Amino acid sequence: MGDVSMTDVRMTDVRISAEQLVRVVGEWRRPGTPLVAALAEAVRDAVLDGRLRTGGRLPAERRLAAALGVSRGTLTAALTTLRDGGWVHTRHGSASTVRLPPAAAARIAPLSATGEAGAMDLRQAVPAAPRAAYQAAMLRAAERADPVLAQAGEPGPGLPELRSLIARRHTDEGLPTRPEQILVTSGARAALALLVAHLRPRVAAVEIPTYFGALPLLRGAGARLTGCRVTGDGWDLDQLDDAFRAARGGLAYLVPDFQNPTGALMTPRTRRAVAESAARHRVTVVADETMRDLDLREGAESGAAPPRIRRALLIGSAAKTVWGGLRIGWIRGPAGLIGELCRDPLCPPLAAAPMQQLVAAELLGDPMPVLLRRRAELRRQRDHLAGLLAGDDRWSFTVPPGGLALWLRLAGARADAVAARARALGVEVSPGPGFAADRTLTQYLRLPYTPPPSALDRVAAVLDAAYGP
After folding, report:
1. Apex CA 464: angle with CA 462 and CA 468, to 5°?
2. pLDDT tens-digit profile of 101-141?
3. How many whole angstroms separate alpha carbon 332 and alpha carbon 149?
4. Local confidence band at 236 (pLDDT 50, 70, 90 cut-offs)
5. Domain ranges of the chain
6. What pTM does this model have?
7. Which of 118, 43, 28 is nearest to 88 (CA)?
C-alpha cells in the first residue's frame, strides 16, 4: 500500500458561497486579536473540524469581504496568511481552494495535541490519521463495496475478509487462529465492554496504573477492582498473584505489550507467571493488545513479536496503528465463546459498520508502510522528549521500549497541582490518579510524545514552569 498524492484524493468541484463561509466561521472576531489573525484562525478551525470542506472553491474576494464585514485589504491579508500556511491554494486566474496542509495531513499527532489550533491537549495519547493512505484505502473500499452494499447491513461477527485477515496475522505470529475465533467490534473499548457484560465478573484484577477507559467499564458492570503495581521497569509478581487470588473465579485486565501508560513490556517469564497464576486461581485473563504494534525497540521490524499469555482472551484495535476514528476492534478467543458473544444482546450495538470494516481490510492487509513510518517518528519524538527531561532532579522516568507516552514520577510535587498550573499555561496533561483503580499515583504524570519535536519543546518548557524551581 503506497502513498498517493494529496491531489489524488482531494475533494473537487465544491463551491463555497460567501453566505456559507460566514455561517461556518461564526463569531470569529476576538477582543485583543487583530482581524487578520482572528479570521485566518477561524478558517483553519473550520477546516480542522470539517465545517469547511477541503477542495472547496472560495467566492470572489470582494463578495466575501462584504459578507464578512471587513475591508478587502483585511481579507486579502488573511488569505495570504492561510496561503502561506498551506490552508488555501490559489492558481493564477482561478478561484482559491481550501486545503489541509501537507504538514497537517502527514502528522503523527492531531492538531489538538500540537498547540497549532490553540491550547495543547495531551490528555489523549492518540495519533492522527495517515491521511493520504487512509483516503486511498477509502477509495479502494468504495470501488469494491457492491457485494457489501447488496447485503442487509445487519451487524454480525464481522466481514469474512477482515476476520480472515486478523486470524492470519495471529497465526503468522505463532498463535494458530481460525476466522471463527475472531469477533470484530467497533473498537477495543467495545470489545472490552462486550466481554465484561458477558462474563459478569464479581472481581477484576487490574494493573495500577492501567488504561483509564477500562476502569469505568469494569466498575459499571459491578466488578470490585483489585490491583497490582506496574512501573516502567515491569510488573510486581507478588502483587500480581495476590490480585489474582483476590479475583478468584473472576477476570484480569492486563496490557502486556507497551503497557498504557507506563510503556512497559511484559517479559516472557512474567507472561508465564500470569498464565500459571490465572490457572491456579481460575481467572480469565483479558490481554489488551492495542499498543502491540508500537514497538520502538531498535530492530523491532526484523525481530519476533512478543509472546502471548497462554489461554488469554485477546483484544486488538486499529486505533493506535492507524487512527482512533477507524472504529475497528476485535476479540480473539475460543470459537465457542465467540459464538456466545455473537448471540449476546449487546453484540449488535457494539458491532463495526461494514464500510469501516472494508477500509480496515484495505489498511490492515498491508500495514507496514504506515506502521514503519509511525514507529520511526514516535521513536524520534520519544527520544527528543526524554532528552529534554533527562538529568533533572525534579522528576524521573524510564524510557519505554514502546507505546505513546512517558510515565513521569515527580519528586516533591503533586501531579494534580502541576497539571493545573500547566493548564493555565496552555498545556493539558493527565495526572496519575486517573489511571489508578485506588486513586493513588498522585506524583505521576503521563506525557505523550505524539506531538512533533517543536511542540515537545513547548511541553518541556511548560512542565519546567509548572513545577517551579
Report:
1. 115
2. 766 555 556 656 666 556 788 998 888 888 888 999 999 99
3. 27
4. very high
5. 6-105, 135-368, 369-467
6. 0.79
7. 43
Distance separating alpha carbons of residues 287 and 272, to the nearest angstrom: 13
Per-residue pLDDT, 44: 82
List the strands of the sheet with 203-208, edge to edge.
182-185, 329-332, 313-317, 284-288, 251-254, 203-208, 224-231, 234-235
- The helix-helix angle for 354-365 and 131-143 (nearest 10°) equals 120
Tell me which CATH code domain 6-105 carries. 1.10.10.10
pLDDT at 219: 96
Q: What's the pLDDT band for 442 if we cut at 50, 70, 90? A: very high
The percent of the chain in helix, strand and coil, each rounded to the nearest 5, is: 45, 15, 40
Please provide the CATH number assigned to the domain covering 135-368: 3.40.640.10
DSSP 157: S
Which residue is associated with the grid cell 487470588? 245
Query: Looking at residues 41-70, what average pLDDT do you find?
Result: 83
* pLDDT given at position 429: 95
Residue 108 CB partners (closer than 8 Å, separation 6+): 127, 128, 374, 377, 378, 381, 450, 451, 452
Residue 255 and residue 245: Cα distance in Å, rounded? 19
Write the CATH number of the domain with boundaries 369-467.
3.90.1150.10
What phi, psi does 72 have (nearest 5°)? -65, -30
CA pair distance 114, 452, nearest whole angstrom: 7
